[in-house]
Design a protein that fits this description.
The longest helix is centred in the C-terminal third of the chain and has 17 residues. The chain is an alpha/beta fold and about 240 residues long. About 30% of the residues lie in helices and about 25% in strands. It has a single domain, classed as 3-Layer(aba) Sandwich (Rossmann fold), CATH 3.40.50.
């Protein structure tokens, strides 16, 4: 069953989801552990790992930021995932960015996604059968490809994907996995991404959610709009919870 949700106006008028609540400083109540993960070429991927307290293994999420951005761009989403929905979260700086450093190589970056997945599956307290991916801009392309490459990934959320960013393509990945759940998000006036999510939606056959927002904000910059942020972060977390 396909589900398509179109949002072209302020979401508060039509969304059934309640906005998320945050700690006073906007940070998760669960503290992060700084982690280093060795990539296939020896590069040390740097990130933060959040593991909520739970008597049972919890589902996990890996976050991938935009080109030229940092893992801190996901700060509005992390408290919702960790403290409200009880997800373990691995948030990394992509190669060529932030504390990870190194050269930008998008072929190796795709390999890094699987490396991160394998690392998260091995962590005590994480359910290895319930791992999802979330990305923004080129990070969403990487997330889609990681989801397509690993049949055990539960679902993927793509904020402002493109059909092709720096050689990282998406339509082939989605077309080859038409019945697997995917959530696609873009702004209406962010033309390339808006066209992309519509084209990706068209090749899906399963449980799909498409959210289109007013304006032109791209990727994690959607969180900078107060009229969108709380509803979007909650919608992402609710989608992940529903599909894990």
């Amino acid at each position: 069953m396909k589900r398509m949700l179109l949002f072209a106006v302020v979401l508060v008028l039509i969304a059934p989801l309640m906005p998320a609540t945050f700690a006073q400083d906007g940070s998760p109540e669960t503290s992060a552990e700084a982690v280093t993960i060795e990539a296939s070429d020896g590069l040390q991927l740097q990130g933060d790992f959040y593991l909520p307290e739970s008597e049972e293994p919890v589902p996990g999420v890996i976050l991938m930021h935009m080109l030229g951005s940092l893992r801190s761009a996901w700060r509005p989403l992390i408290p919702v995932l960790v403290d409200e929905y009880n997800f373990a979260v691995l948030n990394i700086d992509l190669r060529g960015h932030g504390e990870t450093g190194g050269e930008r190589d998008w072929t190796l970056a795709e390999t890094d996604v699987q490396t991160a997945i394998d690392w998260l599956r091995e962590q005590e307290g994480v359910d290895p059968g319930r791992i999802s991916l979330v990305g923004a801009s080129i990070g969403s392309n990487l997330a889609i490809r990681g989801w397509a490459n690993d049949a055990e990934i539960a679902t993927v959320v793509a904020l402002s994907p493109g059909l092709d960013y720096r050689g990282v393509t998406t339509e082939d990945a989605v077309a080859n996995n038409p019945e697997r759940p995917i959530m696609l998000v873009a702004s209406r006036d962010d033309t390339f991404s808006a066209d992309t999510v519509n084209q990706l939606y068209a090749v899906t056959e399963g449980y799909t959610q498409l959210r289109m927002y007013a304006g032109s904000r791209h990727g994690t910059n959607l969180f900078n709009d107060e009229d969108i942020r709380d509803y979007l972060t909650t919608a992402i977390a609710a989608w992940l919870a529903e599909n894990n």
